[in-house]
Amino acid sequence: MITLVTLPSAFGLRNVSPFCLKVEMALTHLGLDFDIKTEADPRKTPKGKLPYLIIDGEKLADSELIFEKLDNISQGGLYGKLTPEEKAMGTAFTRLAEDHLYWLGVASRWLDDDWFPHIVEGFFGFIPGIVRGFASRSARKEVAKTFHLQGLGRHTLEEQKRFAGRDLQAIADIVSKHNYIVGDRLTVYDFIVAGMLSGFMDNQPPTWLSDIANGYPSLRQYLEQIQREVGVRGSGSL
Ligand SMILES: N[C@@H](CCC(=O)N[C@@H](CS)C(=O)NCC(=O)O)C(=O)O
Fold this sequence. Notes:
globular; Glutathione S-transferase Yfyf (Class Pi), Chain A, domain 2
């Protein structure tokens, strides 16, 4: 039995973390038997982040390492039929989505003064009221520090929006021509990119990043198509 441990639903998203959603998509696509457990406190996980998988009694953290494992146990079910060029292109889009666009998504939720109250309710609602404000404000300081160290936090909001637009345009240009990220067919990279897009585009209420992403009809069409094909949606509740 496999257990996928994810964050509880929030912001209209049944799987609020794009990293958790992509793993859920992969498990479903591979037809593996699994259940989902939620953990609201990332500090209680093996690497301080979600998702992690419990497989054969062992805990395995990090979505990319989980994909390696799933590929192994499914005899190449995720990466097996990809050409080196497809893997190269897919890896580049993975890094764009997870190491650049993702951080703009984090900032659009955590560092926008008007949006932050939703973070307090969505992520810290499980903490008793008296310490909730303190815990959420101190986590926000950590996010701001990390965003600054990452580099994107040194730019103005207008500049951050332009960076986001360039990332989204790159994805839109590919999927509007090919329907998928690589190889004109559904691959593991669609779980990664569509999982990430769902986190912004289905997020309620919308953030500034949701507004930019939802301005691309081709991205909405792509997101709907991938969710339909895989049979896993980002919105709703667990
Ligand atoms: N590289 C990790 C990233 C996972 C990640 O950043 N998860 C976020 C939720 S979207 C998290 O748990 N953040 C909690 C924290 O940083 O304290 C993966 O691919 O699994």
